[in-house]
Amino acid sequence: MSDTSQAPTPEAAGSTPLTLVFDEPRGRKKPPRHLADLTAPERKTLLEEQGLPGFRAKQLSTHYFSRLVDDPAEMTDLPAGQRDALVGALLPSLMTPLRTLEADKGTTRKTLWKLFDGALVESVLMRYPGRVTMCVSSQAGCGMACPFCATGQGGLQRNMSTAEIVEQVVAGARSLARDEVPGGPGRVSNVVFMGMGEPLANYKAVIGAVRRLTEPAPDGLGMSARGITVSTVGLVPRIRQLTEEGIPVTLALSLHAPDDELRNELVPINTRYSVVETVEAAWDYARVTKRRVSIEYAMMRGINDQAWRADLLGDVLNSYGDWGWVHVNLIPLNPTPGSKWTASDPADEREFVFRLEAKGIPTTVRDTRGSDIDGACGQLAAVE
């Protein structure tokens, strides 16, 4: 067992208290309205309001979600005389790729995007045997101020629109369909809201994106909700709101500590919603949706990786019953420039897994793909 009396505190590791930011600065110009922001009836209505044939909305949706077309010249079923007006109304340009870095022989691709107002975000495509996962951003920056996360240290610039979120997935789908990713043509099977930002702090846009991703083509991408994971550091009211949405996505709770004293430092939102309140909300989500919750736990050397904390985490999770409502996903801490936080010793990591499994908690250690291109968890900083 570790000697907890000598465990350094987060302050000793170099963190400083930061103010949480929930609201983006006012007065910002909004992103252009895009068909991915709208329901199918809303798309039809918008065209009609602009004096354009409403039935063309379905054709535009087909080009975007089904054919993955981004060149208006390929939309040959649209009248040449109306094509520019139709595309301008529902398919405005949302984001420009500035740079794509590759790892794992090209099967991991991190893209830096510039949004219409100059804000920068990143998304990551990861191809595995049998599946392709897109990690998408929901905010430019993040206001949650977790001291070990590169994104959190940059602060919040603004929320992203539903369409800006969806476009990251559609762009990944295009690259797969065009055979730009090793492994042959494919499709995006999983989406994780684990990129830049706190998804539940941009709740309306994120839920809109989930609906667009899961709606049948051509209204959306036609993905399974079970292939979508929405992460949160623990915005309890929003977790409870998500519980009532009726969309069976996987909830991932970034817990990182089983006790309030430490979690207050690692995840500042904990000063507002305690460990007990947060885990209870996650358990209630599992109870209502029948979807197992993933507990995300970044392993930090000498901070939160002690054996006694593994025992405490197991006890906290088991206090809601042992019916398999939860799975723990341990994340070897990924390095960020200038950070004093380091990954746990492998022996401590193994002991942590052993302690949790001994208490009947299913536990895995996350694959850290993309760390060499700063594309792994906690590394996205969108630096141009």
Automatic annotation (TrEMBL):
GO terms for cellular component: cytoplasm. The keyword Cytoplasm applies. The active site is at E122, C377. One of its GO terms (molecular function) is rRNA binding. InterPro entries: Aldolase_TIM, Methyltransferase_A, RNA_MTrfase_RlmN, rRNA_lsu_MTrfase_RlmN/Cfr, rSAM, rSAM_sf. GO terms for biological process: rRNA base methylation; tRNA methylation. Residues 128-372 form the Radical SAM core domain. It holds the Pfam family Radical_SAM. It is an enzyme of class 2 (transferase). Its EC number is 2.1.1.192. It is found in: Cytoplasm. It comes from the Bacteria. Residues 1-34 are annotated as: Disordered. Keywords: 4Fe-4S, Cytoplasm, Disulfide bond, Iron, Iron-sulfur, Metal-binding, Methyltransferase, rRNA processing, S-adenosyl-L-methionine, Transferase, tRNA processing. The keyword Ligase does not apply. [4Fe-4S] cluster binds at C142, C146, C149. It catalyses: adenosine(37) in tRNA + 2 reduced [2Fe-2S]-[ferredoxin] + 2 S-adenosyl-L-methionine = 2-methyladenosine(37) in tRNA + 5'-deoxyadenosine + L-methionine + 2 oxidized [2Fe-2S]-[ferredoxin] + S-adenosyl-L-homocysteine; adenosine(2503) in 23S rRNA + 2 reduced [2Fe-2S]-[ferredoxin] + 2 S-adenosyl-L-methionine = 2-methyladenosine(2503) in 23S rRNA + 5'-deoxyadenosine + L-methionine + 2 oxidized [2Fe-2S]-[ferredoxin] + S-adenosyl-L-homocysteine. S-adenosyl-L-methionine binds at G197, E198, S231, S254, L255, H256, N334. Binds 1 [4Fe-4S] cluster. The cluster is coordinated with 3 cysteines and an exchangeable S-adenosyl-L-methionine. NCBIfam families: rRNA_mod_RlmN (TIGR00048). Reaction proceeds by a ping-pong mechanism involving intermediate methylation of a conserved cysteine residue. PANTHER family: 23S RRNA METHYLTRANSFERASE, RADICAL SAM CORE DOMAIN-CONTAINING PROTEIN. Belongs to the radical SAM superfamily. RlmN family. Specifically methylates position 2 of adenine 2503 in 23S rRNA and position 2 of adenine 37 in tRNAs. This is Probable dual-specificity RNA methyltransferase RlmN. It comes from Nocardioides luti. The lineage of its organism: Bacteria, Bacillati, Actinomycetota, Actinomycetes, Propionibacteriales.
